């Protein structure tokens, strides 16, 4: 089992290195990532302080920002729904 997992890890690492070297991504992706992180935090901030759901507060931490970063605005709805059902 460990040999198979190590093999998968090595193949994925080689694939990532090949894509990075062959495409010459540069640093433009860092700018886009930073913009998306700021927009995700802004979306959470607006939900927290706009009064849409007064009984729910979604904290700004790396987990919630990453969820919104990956899922977009439906991620805010997901976090809000989870918060309201868990209360």
Mind explaining what this structure looks like?
There is one protein chain. The protein is mostly helical and 87 residues long. Helix content is 79%, strand content 0%. Helix 2 packs across helix 3 (62-71). It is elongated, with a radius of gyration of 18 Å. The model has no long low-confidence stretch (mean pLDDT 83).
Helices and strands, with pairings:
Elements: H1 2-23, H2 28-50, H3 62-71, H4 73-86
Helix pairs in contact: 2-3, 3-4
What is the H/E string?
A: HHHH
Rounded to an integer in angstroms, the radius of gyration calculated over CA atoms is: 18 Å
Q: Report the major sheet.
A: none
Shape: elongated
Organism: Paenibacillus faecis
Transmembrane segments: 6-21, 33-54, 60-82
Protein name: Pro-sigmaK processing inhibitor BofA
InterPro entries: BofA (IPR010001)
What are the salient characteristics of this protein?
87 residues; elongated; 4 helices; Pro-sigmaK processing inhibitor BofA; 0% strand; mainly alpha; membrane
